[in-house]
Design brief:
By secondary structure, the protein is α/β, with parallel strands linked by helices. The chain is built from 37 helices and 22 strands. The strands form 6 sheets. Strands 12-9-13-14-16-15 form a 6-stranded parallel β-sheet, with helices on both faces. Strand 19, helix 32 and strand 20 form a beta-alpha-beta unit. Helix 6 crosses helix 19.
Amino acid sequence: MNDAQSASPQSTGSPVIHEGLPTQLPDIDPEETSEWVESFDAMLEGRGRERARYVMLRLLERAREKQVGVPALRSTDYINTIPPEREPWFPGDEDVERRIRAFLRWNAAVMVSSANRKGLEVGGHIATYQSSASLYEVGFNHFFQGKDAEGGGDQIYIQGHGSPGIYARAYLEGRLTEEQLYRFRQEVQHGVGAGLPSYPHPRLMPEFWEFPTVSMGLTAINSIYQARFNRYLHNRNLKDTSQQHVWAFLGDGEMAEPESLGAIGVAAREELDNLTWVINCNLQQLDGPVRGNGKIIQELESQFRGAGWNVIKVVWGREWDDLLARDVDSVLVNRMNTTPDGAFQTYSVEDGAYIRDSFFGSDQRLRKMVEHMSDEQIRKLPRGGHDYRKVYAAFEAAKQHVGQPTVILAKTIKGWTIDALEGKNATHQMKKLTPDDLKKFRDRLYLPISDRDLERSYEETGAAPFFHPGKDAPEIEYMMERRKALGGAVPRRVDRSSSLKLPGDSAYAALKEGSGKNKVATTMAVVRQLKDWMRDPEIGQRIVPIAPDEYRTFGMDGMFPTAKVYNPGGQRYEAVDRNMLLAYKESAQGQMLHEGISEAGAMASATAAGSAYSTHGEHMIPFYIFYSMFGFQRTGDSIWAMADQLARGFLIGATAGRTTLTGEGLQHADGHSPLLAATNPAVVHYDPAFAYEVSHVMRSGLERMYGDDPEDVIFYVTVYNEPVSQPAEPEDVDVDGILRGMHRVSVADGDGPRVQLMASGIGFPWAEDAARMLAEDWGVQADTWSVTSWNELARDAVSAEEWNLLHPGESPRSAYVTDKLEGATGPVVAVSDYMCAVPLQIARWVPGDYRVLGADGFGFADTRPAARRYFHIDAESVVVQALQALADAGELPREKVVEAFEKYRIEDPTAVSGVTQEGGDA
């Protein structure tokens, strides 16, 4: 006996854990156990391995049905999860639905091909919808609840590249015109709104699309958090969402995105059985196979089962059922299990003789199994995702399943029914169909379009004609009846929300009083404003605080005992800090969303909450607070999608700036988020310096997003962790200036040369100190300006120039920043805790000499004084820059600049090594 044999469990009986099955548990009845083992051995010896395997699988299945806690298998055979004998009765008219799909396939393909006629060529995707038409149509005809359904309707995430098929259906339903289909991807040249966007974009078609989905991976995570938010609304008694279901259509290649699979544990942990994913496994991504040497369906099954999902595989169409019934030796199943996806893709383009020889020819038993079939019948053996009975059975099982989210893995062929595209690696990039291609396609779909009609259409329009059987055709009547029964057309976006009564002046009074002798960071000012809002009887319960494991970081732990952290299971343990005043407290009715270390998840929650006014008819106010560096830099794509979804709410970039959180080092040092925010047209960014500015900014955001005439914008407010003295609001405060981007804080009243100092956020105290030093040490008078938004000033200026371009015969408009600085004496010096490019946005419109100081480069760990000296943005650096500007203008001798430079040593961080700082942590 060799070492391997002596170490084997069979020979020694040593306890092991094999694939999640523990064997070292105490045996309370060894005799009974022995009888079971002997019985199994006898079956194995007498009936063989395949029979023993089958019986074991049935026992595991039975254990699952009886809720015996046996670990699930990581994957099952490469066959349908639902056997034929368990398929439900299909309630639809199969012939009518087949014809409907033919109409849709044709119109979707013609739409894209037409968009790529010579002289236009705007792109598009034909193959994705062709592979998934049956998946969608089973949903449209039998499952998707519209907005008029009891309970409010389902939320349906359409795969982005499948949009032509959805437009094709809307055309048959009378929701879109033939002219609009011809204008696919032509959104402005025929008049704004006269064409159709390429993908599901609610911002471009706000009455049609509900969820933007073409950014790969975001559909997955957003749908999970949408289903979770539905439960959040329900558990907090804000809306009954018990009859609403979330459907998300995804691609198998898309599963490679980290966002696709990164949050599936959340869905399982919270038992989101209101969520179904349908993954279109056509085995192809853009350039080739998804898993050429592997099996993507098996891989995904293993991942989802391991995460705790209910998995339904729809691999084979009904024509395979008879073959599988004959597979008494499991030789066919074994062949299916061991054939890689790359081979299956080859079979999708080869003839039946090739498939007979390559797939069935490896074993005489397989050859015999198909000897009664012609080569053509073998070639046409279908994949399950194209069989509406199989798909219906999967959808029905998903809707009925309780306690787990469901994923349906449906095997299809990319470009199915179009001979020119079907299964080819280049299918995704193929945009055009020739007249001959279309004739073959027409014949395969049995459409009554003559060659003459095709040719005439090409002569007149350069493209094939769309097909509509007439509004009184039985297929159209069937479609309309089914949608009426299910609650109306989908997709469809509506806003049924009621206006909110917003807080009055008293809710903002505290921040306007100033901090007296205390020092308060603007992060704390924002949190104080949030707490005051949450006490409001009208909007308090509609606020959704969101943080990725950082509530304590931002001083929000005081909300734990009252608002509580949302957990659908409540709190089933005694908290370690239960005897403390600010104990961590979870509740099924909790208001605070604690997302763990997942900024992507937090953004998905913010998106779901911020669009609840349209998805649910209920205004919800997301308040997502995060380390500033981990907002736009890490999840900018999600924020873009949030804007596309027309969501509203507050994003709070706390610990902003490159030098306020320097102890954390490079990765936490945000010197550029305003620039990233500026790239998103829906984001309104403010960088307030004072608590009273915070109050006006937050009030403006609430009124603009949730007032009587709400705007589809997102307020991004950057705040800081450094405590500073907060002045009371001046009686003559320029509120309009605060909201438009800048206001003058102080005017120097002495004699001598003058400069204008502009600063934002935590940079204002440097400007303030610099103004004092300039007056006391150098005889220079400085006015100070608080810039609450460099971005809004720049946008206003660009808007003014655009207006002038389009109105050449009228009096030109000027930029707000130009108007504010007109008449101000002296050069302008701007400073912020961001890179120079942030204040340089307005350089073109600043009258006179404009100098900028900023924190360009990577951050690092040190004290704030050292970091600010290193970046040359501290008060001393502002002084030297102001003196240099005056010297360049001939108002001061250059020797003064040299004197100041040598006095302050602004090039030397060691000069401030002994300067202390306050509140250095987050």
